[in-house]
Write a structure and sequence with these properties.
By secondary structure, this protein is mainly alpha-helical. The protein is built from 6 helices and 2 strands. Helices cover 78% and strands 5% of the residues.
């Protein structure tokens, strides 16, 4: 049950973040649900591999390279989900930061 609750909160966070940023478009809440699901899968299976491969860059940039990895993974999800569009890499970085902040607030409130 907790997994479904987390998925719903992440979907709300994706939807709110997309509505706040003009460089990100989302068609409807169903698209946000798919984006949240794919982000969970990508962050579970692909992100650890990328983080391991790019560990020297992460260390050299004091962790800031993780933002690049997050943006690239968001752009991957953008390509896979119809109804979700990120304008460019810069908006993907901003989206990942704002999404993290909104997720943190929602997790704290609920």
């Amino acid at each position: 049950m907790e997994l479904l609750w987390t998925w719903l909160l992440n979907s709300v966070a994706v939807f709110l973040t997309a509505k706040l940023l003009k460089g990100v478009e989302i068609k409807n809440f169903w698209s946000a649900i798919w984006v949240a699901a794919l982000l969970a899968l990508v962050n579970t299976f692909i992100k650890p591999v990328l983080a391991l491969i790019s560990l020297p860059f992460i260390v050299l940039t004091l962790g800031l390279f993780v933002l690049v990895i997050n943006a690239l993974l968001l752009m991957l999800v953008d390509k896979l989900v119809d109804g979700f569009k990120i304008e460019n890499f810069g908006w993907a970085v901003v989206f990942s930061i704002v999404l993290s902040l909104i997720n943190t607030v929602l997790a704290y409130v609920f």
